[in-house]
């Protein structure tokens, strides 16, 4: 008689519902009409194991993501509201780092007109503000196999890619939240700098500073202004205000406190 382990089943099953205890671990995608849960347009639960079904899952999620029309070199074209690499990394992280002992809960992707929320069962081992520079897998064997299948890298660079893609797409900084039983990653649709609230700006400043640091660089007013917010030099004072507020919240600090010139100041995360 053959014995199929839960690990093999969760990776390769054609139908997860055939395995007791794993049927509720299939990822679920819900699409809403609008920015609330009041009206559901689509609710679909996956059937396949994570390894054999991952590509199809990402393709399905991307097919449901709203598009924006842009004009590039006088040609109109539609682009997805969120970068595929960010959706891929967040979905992979949610699957790999979930707490399988959480009963009646599964990885869930909720798509709204202004954001995407990806929820993973269980609390993380590390604080959300350290996701970019720290790594600890809850399910090491699952993470190792997913890496070998090319689904993840198992070296903690997934969140780096999410934040970098958000900067390239000029999206608000992703928000990583922890509830009593879940970890939630939220990606927001594009906002102009003027439309961002204080939390949006501080979160973007901190994440940009972290990203620069793990790339062996330092954040400056110029890097934050040009790379992160896509603002002209006229907005340097507005960006300086964001930096001051982020420092006041204890999230970043001067890399060299002896530098007095605002022009030459650089910054590192509080934990550096």
The count of helical stretches stands at 8
**Class by SSE composition:** alpha+beta
The run of helices and strands is HEEHEEHEEHHEEHHHEE
For the biggest sheet, the summary is: 6 strands, mixed
- The CATH class of the largest domain: Alpha Beta
- Tell me how many strands there are: 10
Q: Taking strands numbered 1, 2, ... along the chain, how are they ordered across the largest sheet?
A: 2-1-5-6-8-7
Q: What is the second-level CATH architecture of the largest domain? A: 2-Layer Sandwich
Give start-end ranges of low-pLDDT stretches: none
Q: What is the overall pLDDT average?
A: 90
| Shape, per Cα inertia axes | globular
Tell me the distance between the termini: 55 Å
User: Roughly what fraction of the amino acids lie in strands?
Assistant: 15-25%
Task: Set out the fold topology.
Layout: H1 6-12, E1 28-32, E2 40-45, H2 50-64, E3 67-72, E4 75-80, H3 84-96, E5 108-111, E6 115-121, H4 140-148, H5 158-168, E7 175-178, E8 182-188, H6 198-214, H7 221-228, H8 236-248, E9 252-254, E10 267-269
Parallel strand pairs: 1-5
Antiparallel strand pairs: 1-2, 3-4, 5-6, 6-8, 7-8, 9-10
Helix pairs in contact: 2-3, 3-5, 6-8, 7-8
């Amino acid at each position: 008689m053959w014995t199929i382990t839960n690990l093999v089943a969760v990776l390769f099953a054609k139908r997860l519902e055939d395995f007791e205890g794993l049927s509720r671990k299939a990822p679920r995608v819900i699409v809403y009409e609008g920015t609330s849960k009041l009206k559901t347009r689509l609710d679909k639960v996956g059937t396949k194991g994570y390894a054999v079904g991952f590509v199809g899952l990402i393709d399905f999620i991307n097919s449901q993501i709203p598009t924006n029309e842009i004009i590039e070199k006088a040609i109109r074209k539609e682009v997805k509201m969120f970068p595929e690499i960010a959706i891929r990394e967040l979905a992979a992280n949610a699957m790999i780092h979930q707490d399988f002992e959480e009963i009646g809960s599964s990885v869930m992707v909720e798509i709204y007109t202004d954001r995407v929320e990806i929820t993973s069962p269980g609390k993380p081992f590390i604080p959300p503000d350290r996701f970019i520079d720290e790594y600890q897998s809850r399910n090491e064997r699952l993470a190792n196999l997913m890496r070998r299948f090319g689904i993840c890298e198992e070296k903690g660079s997934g969140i780096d890619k999410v934040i970098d893609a958000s900067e390239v797409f000029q999206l608000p900084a992703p928000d990583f939240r922890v509830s009593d039983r879940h970890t939630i990653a939220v990606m927001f649709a594009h906002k102009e700098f003027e439309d961002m609230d204080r939390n949006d700006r501080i979160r973007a400043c901190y994440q940009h500073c972290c990203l620069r640091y793990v790339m062996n660089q330092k954040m400056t007013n110029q890097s934050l202004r040009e790379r992160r917010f896509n603002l002209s030099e006229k907005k340097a004072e507005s960006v300086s205000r964001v930096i001051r507020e982020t420092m006041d919240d204890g999230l970043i600090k001067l890399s060299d406190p002896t530098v007095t010139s605002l022009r030459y100041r650089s910054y590192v995360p509080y934990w550096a």
